[in-house]
Amino acid sequence: MRSARLPTGTRLDAAEGKIVTRTRGEEKGGRAGWIEVARRTLRENPATTLLGFEAVSVGLGKAVLKLDVEGKHRQLHGVVHGGILAALADTASAIAAYTKVAPGTAIATVELKINYLEAVPGGSVLAEATVLRAGRNFVVVECELIDSRGKLAAKALMTFGAASGHAMAKRKG
Q: For a tag site, which of 42, 99, 119, 146 has the least CB within 10 Å?
C-alpha cells in the first residue's frame, strides 16, 4: 500500500477515516490553537463522541482529557471498563503526540501497554499524557489516569508511528 502525499498544512478528516492534525494556521496559534483542534477532533470522531471524552488542556508535548463516568462506561462489576480507560489514554496520548510532530504528519498507535492500579467506580477520570520522546518515525508517550478521588487508576505507555506527509486511509483505485 502506498500512501498519498498531503500538502503542508492539510487537515485530515477523522470522520472519513483519516487522522486529524493541526493546520499551518492552527500551528501558528500555538497552544490556544491546539486545544481548539483537539476539541473539534473529539467532536468529529464518532468513537470519542460516543465515549464522551473532553479535552481539558493541550500544550507542547502534553494533553489532558476528561471522562465523566456514565453507566455505559461500566463493566459487569460496576466499575469503568478497562478498554474505555485504554481508549482514553490512547486518545490523550495521540493528541499530545500531535503537538510534537510536523503539520501533515499522520500518526498511528503501534504499541499500547497499560497497568490498571485502581478500579474506577464513578465520578470522572483525567488522562494526563506527556510525550517522552518524539523522533522522526516514532513518538513515545506516557499517560496517567487519575480518578476523582485523586488516585492513580492506571498508567499507560504508547508508541506511535509517525509518517510525515502520509494519510492512513487506503488509496482508492
A: 119
